[in-house]
Design goal:
The complex is a heterodimer of chains A (211) and B (222). In chain A, helix 4 crosses helix 5. Chain A has eight helices and nine strands. Helices cover 32% and strands 25% of the residues of chain A. Chain B is mainly α and 222 residues long. Chain B has one domain. Chain B is 84% helix and 0% strand. Chain B is built from eleven helices and no strands. Chain B starts with a helix and ends with a helix. Classes of the chains: A alpha/beta (211), B mainly alpha (222). Chains A and B meet through helix 3 and helix 4 of A and helix 1 and helix 5 of B.
Chain lengths: 211, 222
């Protein structure tokens, strides 16, 4: 379970949010809303531990993530704005590196299947620099199919994806939530994420966050 | 854990092989700088023999500074570095793999090229041998110390110049003992003591630099 207590974040001279508190448990999905510049990405990066909060803390199963570090990182998958793939490597190589870093052992077959499922059949062994924006995004997202992290933090995962890929990714997210995983995501697109309840968090309304 | 080290090493070497022009710039810089001195100073053998160790070592130092910028910059730009910070693997180990790969592609070519360049300065075969050994011990230290600076200045404008300002003073001992070892050998004093010092510096930076770079990376990624 991920708990956020009295979180405050200041970037530059601006206070993005303060007194933010929520928690998310197994099988729950949190959809983060907010206008541009309201601090969505900052919040997600803070939840990952990439940014130290100016106040408050983020707890994983009751312990501060700052103390857990690698133990927490093993439970977490973060997909950010940057695609985190190497242009000079091909899809399979990129995915293999990402999985090894995640601590997941994979066979070649699994890697090819994951890319295949994301609609990259025939593009697996091309250097990703020749792929389109959407295809690069898909290579980056293929990690989600293979990792065993419980918490997914996804920053605008639907960007640059076509309709079919959006549908596919929604399916993957739904599957993860159904298996008891947790997902926190931001998106400006209209998407249907789970049959169950989706929790919404609005940032940037009168400064304070509400669930 | 060894698997992660191997993966990062292999990835960085593959990337370097697919962008060979980057490797060539460092090596050519080294070759050209070292070759310019005999042209500028003239064919006075005694003078050349005298300045050889210093010139080769300063050129190696500058060449390794030139290469430093590339150590983390690409990974920072495309977001892979961010992912490395978020893996269950120890970050210092990943950083160490990156530094090792960086040395293999930017340091080792210099080491191998140095004896050939030393010939231009009429160094004795003994002197060339010690030059090779001193660079073999010294260049990894330069990469390790440089990594701390590169990590600290990541994402800053004009980071390249800043990194040189930060790192060059720290590399002075390596320069003194590196050039000193060749000088001492040529003058007949024997360069063993200098080489032991270089070895000690290497061991010290092997232990400290990856941890310090990892901490610096966390800071500059905030």
């Amino acid at each position: 379970m991920l708990e956020v207590c009295d979180l405050e974040c200041i970037r530059g001279d601006r206070r993005l949010f303060h007194g933010l508190a929520f928690s998310i448990g197994e099988g729950e999905l949190l959809h983060l809303h907010g206008h541009n510049g309201s601090g969505k990405t900052t919040l997600l990066r803070t939840l990952c531990g990439l940014i130290l909060p100016s106040g408050g803390e983020v707890r994983w199963n009751g312990e501060d993530i700052r103390g857990l570090r690698e133990e927490y990182a093993g439970q977490l998958t973060y997909i950010g704005h940057k695609r985190a793939i190497k242009d000079d490597l091909n899809g399979v190589e990129n995915l293999r590196v990402a999985c090894t870093l995640d601590g997941v052992e994979t066979t070649d077959e699994q890697l090819w299947n994951a890319l295949d499922r994301l609609g990259l059949r025939g593009f697996e062994d091309l250097p990703t620099k020749v792929l389109s924006q959407g295809q690069k995004r898909r290579v980056g997202l293929a990690r989600l199919l293979l990792n065993r992290a419980q918490l997914w933090v996804l920053d605008e995962p639907f960007n640059a994806l076509d309709k079919a890929a959006v549908g596919l990714l929604q399916g993957v997210i739904r599957e993860h939530v159904a298996k008891g995983g947790m997902v926190i995501l931001t998106t400006h697109q209209e998407v249907s994420l789970t049959q169950g309840e989706v929790r919404n968090l609005q940032l940037g309304v009168g400064e304070k966050g509400h669930v | 854990m060894f698997e992660t080290f191997r993966t990062i090493l292999k990835r960085d070497l593959t990337l370097a092989m697919r962008r060979r022009t980057d490797l060539m710039t460092t090596l050519f810089f080294f070759v050209i700088v070292v070759s310019l001195f005999p042209l500028g100073i003239g064919p006075e053998m005694n003078t050349l023999r005298l300045i050889a160790p210093g010139v080769v070592w300063v050129a190696a130092l500058l060449a390794s500074m030139l290469a430093l910028e590339r150590l983390f910059a690409a990974d920072h730009a495309d977001g892979t570095l961010e992912q490395m910070l978020l893996t269950p693997q120890p970050l210092a180990l990943l950083v160490f793999a990156k530094i090792f790969a960086h040395w293999l592609v930017s340091g080792v070519p210099l080491v191998l090229m140095a004896p050939l360049l030393g010939l231009q300065y009429d160094l004795s075969s003994e002197g060339l041998q010690v030059l090779l050994i001193s660079l073999l011990l010294g260049t990894p230290t330069l990469s390790l110390i440089g990594a701390i600076g590169a990590a600290l200045t990541l994402g800053l404008r004009g980071g390249g110049v800043l990194v040189s300002l930060l790192v060059l003073p720290l590399t002075i001992p390596v320069l003194i003992f590196g050039a000193g070892s060749v000088e001492a050998t040529v003058s007949g004093l024997g360069g063993d003591g200098h080489l032991y010092m270089l070895g000690a510096l290497l061991v010290m930076s092997l232990v400290l630099a990856p941890v310090a770079s990892a901490a610096a990376l966390r800071i500059s990624n905030e």
